[in-house]
Amino acid sequence: MTFDRTLHHFPLDPASRQVRLVLGEKRLPFREMPERYWERRPELTALNPSGLTPVLVESEAGRNLVICESRAILEHLEETAPEPGLLGRDPAERAETRRLLQWFDRKFDYEVNALLLHEKMEKRLLGLGAPDLANLRAGREALRSHMAYIDKLLQERDWLGGRRLSLADFAAAANLSVIDYFGDVPWNDFTGVKTWYMRIKSRPCFRPLLTDRWPGLAPAAHYDDLDF
Amino acid sequence: MTFDRTLHHFPLDPASRQVRLVLGEKRLPFREMPERYWERRPELTALNPSGLTPVLVESEAGRNLVICESRAILEHLEETAPEPGLLGRDPAERAETRRLLQWFDRKFDYEVNALLLHEKMEKRLLGLGAPDLANLRAGREALRSHMAYIDKLLQERDWLGGRRLSLADFAAAANLSVIDYFGDVPWNDFTGVKTWYMRIKSRPCFRPLLTDRWPGLAPAAHYDDLDF
Fold this sequence. Notes:
alpha+beta; homodimer; Glutaredoxin; Glutathione S-transferase Yfyf (Class Pi), Chain A, domain 2; 9 helices
């Protein structure tokens, strides 16, 4: 009986990166199918009606299980491949991990990605012209307040969600890593966050992300440097 | 040993309504603490740094467990109060339920609520002036395409997520119910959706939502009518 996984993802999509990191951390092998989500490939829309990445397809004996959207995939992996556990051991840890997943998927995405990544990445991918400088500025300012919040959490905790590495760390790192590709993370003003990020960045699960390159979008010089 | 639950919520917040419906469906009693989230009450921000509703506080023997954000609360309730199960029995059902949770929390929220509810509700609550008619029109148009999608799902299934009532139904109903408060759901153009909504609306868990009223915001005449 053969079993395999295929992940439909866009390499610079923070939600896709969360899933790649977690698959790596759990040592679950998978095939990659990079998607240019903005082209709305019919085969992708057939898998996920929202047309968005990530989509994980698990195949066993000719039957496909299709799991769409990052939260659904992360919860599925916790349920079906529980080692190492990344959600938390008790209700309080799990609540905190999930609170932070929501924080990055929604608040960070609205306040930072929708400005900074839209202007620096999406506009280039979709051919929408030059970045709007006011939006870039607002996105960078919002990023600083999120960095301050992460820094505050890390002053009280070993990892973002508490005493143990969790999905919250991978959600935060996935989001920051895309912004870091474009060189926009003010690491030196937030050394606590930088130290935490270096710990995540040096994990084996992170390596594939460091080799991501997208035509026409060059990464910042330090992007794949583990000692940046 | 006393155990009690308090839900901090805003009565017309779709995310809060998801949780109220599920607490009701699972017959879990709770105290209500209505929040005017836009005032950013310090006690609420102390519980949830995002300042958003819903927040569920479970107290036992003087110890509080604070669970923030709707997805975290719904997953917590499935884990700690599993009857009746609303997530699905196997990985495929659970993946489909969670895909649809994401659909309503993100796609519906971006495309419909951010326009329609923002113009009709938030602007009044926050004193931001008259609704923008172009935004209202765009929100109503997006709502029609979501209604068409729900209709399509219901042509193939008994409930939104599949053969069983699930969190997906409560997510959809919670969102539509707030828009219905303002009289903006085109029920008569989507009779399959209307029939499904009547089934949900007549459940005991729905009753508290039908008595919600907010000062200065009158509901549509049919809002609390079970046979609308």
